[in-house]
Amino acid sequence: MSARAKVGILISGRGSNMATLLEAARAPDYPAEIVLVASNRPDAPGLARAAEAGIATAAVDHRAHPDRASFERALDAALREHGVEFLVLAGFMRVLTPWFVEAWAGRMLNIHPSLLPLFRGTHTHAQALAAGVRVHGCTVHFVVPELDAGPIVAQAAVPVLPDDDEDALSARVLVQEHRLYPAALALVASGRARLDGDRVAFAPGSGGAEGALVAPSLP
Length: 219
Fold this sequence. Notes:
(6R)-10-formyltetrahydrofolate binds at residues 68, 110. By secondary structure, the chain is an alpha/beta fold. The protein is built from six helices and ten strands, in the order βαβαβαβαβαββαβββ.
């Protein structure tokens, strides 16, 4: 593995989390280098955004392939061609098959807009409001074949306010997503957090969060 881990980002849309990862990786002491942004949609706005930042891009259109297996093998080939070591999902709107997930086991991260294991799937902010929870948030986890069920790397929480609607709550969570994802990727890319069976093992001194609502603590 290189001094800075080589990371690929998968997107399907504008890539707001992608943008924060690109910005974080510009720091010379950040342990990851973004070497590729790939999308299943050639018209994804995030591809142009990445290209403007000087990052290599690839469009692997799922509609041009006869089945999921063919699409995923083409995507996998593009990632390996660029030497990608870790993979980050940032608004990638395709459910990946067990074959692809196993090929990248322990090296693929996703961010989900809830405090997993609560509120898996879509419309998480509506789910949180309907459940009446007082705390909501986001989770970075390793990807496993079961949707939104992978071992948790990091979480950040926000309060749910009495007058919140979906938009207000989503905006509050998104602020934390943009902080949490670069920090979690840094933990994994540097080897301070790694997949160990069905849990995440942390190196000593990787940061606690006593008295905080972010765990592990952000820099």
